[in-house]
Amino acid sequence: MDISFEKLWKISKELQLSLSLDESLCKILTALTAGDGFAFNRAIIFLKEDTRLIPKVWIGPKTIDEAYKVWKEISSQPHALEDLLSKCSRREYLKSLPTISIELNINDFNPDFLNNGPTKIDKSDLVPKTLRSVLEYLPFVLVPLKTESELLGLIIADNMFNKKAITDIDIKHLELYAALASNVIERANLFEEVKKKEKALEESYRKLQEAQKKVISLEKMAATGELSSTFAHELRNPV
């Protein structure tokens, strides 16, 4: 993988366009696996929930037959990185992306792997058994995603099919990319929180309007002498 800083800047620009978490995760892995990007054969991203690491998106072939099929399609109809990233904005495409059905725990990993930068893992005894059974290949690179105060998740990427080596230069580039990806995920999480709060505020406003309508209705009934027959019902059914 020989990716220029100019290419990193272009990838950064594309990632910054995304506010949706799903779209952001898709773009992060697409840039990692695209031939015009970091060119890893496959990658998966996990997000942290308490002490669990939940798999979210997998991009790349899972078998050698799938790999040959992908390479054949790419050779016959090449796509620019920008075109591949643009697919992530389509809901249908996001729904079609595979994942895996395992969960990891942060306690299964050496703390240094999660607290430091990207690490090349080339020994099976360093890999949790559940993850080893899915990847079935070494080496791979483990990329922690974190803010200054917390772990957000991690990315695992490898070159299972073309056997390309993961070099020290790759690790340095991934260190920059991890910081970028972490920033994008953190921003998407904040945006999701804002949307949830906005929805809760809208619901509170709706209930307030209903309460106001009920007050106006009671005032009208009081003015017309109808209040006595409905007062008990209103008390039994408060807003």
From TrEMBL:
What stretch or stretches form a coiled coil here? 187-221
Per its UniProt record, what InterPro entries does this chain match? Answer: GAF-like_dom_sf
Which keywords annotate this record? Coiled coil
Question: Does Coiled coil count among this protein's keywords?
Answer: yes
Q: Where is the signal peptide?
A: none
Protein name, entry field: GAF domain-containing protein
